[in-house]
Amino acid sequence: MKTQSFRTSNRWRRIALSIAWIVCALAGCALIHHNGTPAAAIAPEQINLADDIHLAREGWPAARWWTRYDDPQLNILIDQALDRAPTMRIARTRVAQAKSDVELVSAGSGLQVVALAMLDREHVSANGFLGPFANNVPEEGLTGPWYTEGIVGLGASLNVDIWGKQRAEVAASLGVNNARLAETSAVELEISSDVAQLYYGIQTTYALVALLEQSRDIAAFAVSAHRARVARGLEARTELETAKAQQLAIEQQIVSAQDRIVSFRESLRALIGAGPADLPVIAPVALPGQQAALPATLSYELLARRPDLQAMRWYVQASFDRIDAAKAAFYPSFDIKAFFGLNALHLADLFTRASQQINLIPGLYLPIFDGGRLNANLGGARAQSNMLIDQYNAAVLDAVRDVAQTGSRLQALDTQFDLQRRRVESITFAGDSAEAHYRRGLSSRLAALQARQPVIAEQAALLALHGEIIGQDIALTKALGGGYRADSPVELKPR
Fold it and tell me: Coiled-coil region(s) at which residues (predicted)?
């Protein structure tokens, strides 16, 4: 009885010593010194527009916002760009890469099982740890010094994620994947808006060339009329040369406008990724009216509507998960390794019952002294997170500024367009009056045609305003997110 009691007491003593050793080891783990303070995300009240910025129309853009212009040519060009543009292919590749990273990190947290087989032909050293096996004494089971060892079996390992390090790393990789998806939507918005800007740049220049050609015809008639007068000695040559100079100036404007069309077209070709014969012929069409609108309020809704902001929010969220993973690295980690198979010093004995081998190896790893590596890693993760938060805050303010400036510019352009339209109406009246005088024989045809020149000039100014309104219309659509909508906006919770 005394012996049994002694053994029981001794066993409990060993258990107590083991627990004490573990407690001491845990107390000796590396300590967190460089956690830092998380930066604050932007306040909701800073995501708003001034009260004096408003448009006649209200609302958010639709998903395929460009279809509101009802232009089949534009629809084809944007669809082609979204399918073939090099930047779109790059964005999709980045998403595929992020998805692979998620799968890679997730795989590391699961059970790993491998089949293994090994053949080892070795000569045992007589002076080494296995020195007795270097002897050749078959009666004692020693058949050295040469052995052909064989191992066949299954090996398994499992990391037990007690502190959530693996879960945090998986969450971080998922955050990056979601950010890449949002970035793809941002690239789609960038491409579609750039295509629309270039397309309507071409259409506006087409309309300008048509006006300049009218002006050129008038200038050509004036040159012909003055040349006839000079030939008959009715006027000095000065009037003729002045008319020629005006005609040449108009020709220069036409050449410059046609060059802009070529430049717009080639930029469009590069953006779409079209070959020399792949870009559809762009026929002139009438310019559309203003379509964009401002929502009554922006607030946090803008965050869900802007793909670039959602991408940055996901990057920030991923940085929080990396901080969690860096913190978890300070705590003990636990894994289990196992092997089941056959192991024999001689191949002839490998596949026998006696060669069966089973290993079960639980492992506990305690970071005690790491030279500051873990704290440096945590400090770097915190600094990276704070930098991303600051970048995100700046991006939000820039987004609100873009909406405000574009909306305000559209308001001003609407007023300017209305004033210019009324100006064109007034000056057209003067031109029509000169035409009426000519038809009644009260003035010459040259005077009637020259009265049209100021009208054309004012129409060109009105056209320029119209083209700028379309450009700002597209810019406002882009600033509002172009119809993008996040299914579940990320909530930033610094930790």
Answer: none
